[in-house]
Amino acid sequence: MKLTVLGCHGPFARRGACSSYLVSHEGTNILLDMGNGSLANFLEAHSISGIDAIFLSHLHYDHMSDIQILKYAIGQSRMRGFDIPQIPLYLPGSPQEVFQTVTAGGDCFSVTVIHDFSETVVGNMKVVCSQMTHPVE
Prior knowledge:
single chain; 137 residues; alpha/beta; six-stranded mixed beta sheet; 4 helices; 23% helix; globular
C-alpha cells in the first residue's frame, strides 16, 4: 500500500495544496479529502479516470474545495467526448447546505453518506469510517 501526500497545508496555504491524500494499492486509487490545489497535484501523475473513490472526512472547504473543480473537469472532459464514469463519493451529510452544494449539479458522483462505523470495499481495500471530535460532523 502506498500513501501519497497531495496536500497537507492548512486553510490559508501560501504555497502548496490543502489536505488531500492518495491511497494506492494494487491498481486501486482512493482520494482522502480534496483540499484546494490537490487535484492539480493528482493530475501530475494520474488521470481523472484513475480515481476509484473519494472519501471526504468532513465538509470544511480546506478538505473538499477541489471537489467543485473536479466536477467542472469531468463536465469539460465529457463535452470533449471522453467517457468519464461516475466516481463513488463518500461524505458526511452535514452541514446540509455544504452537502447540497457538493452533491448538486449533474451525475459526476455516486454519493454515499457516511456515518460512524460505515464500511465499504473499494477495489482491494476496505475502508472503515469513524466519528472524530471536530466542529462539524
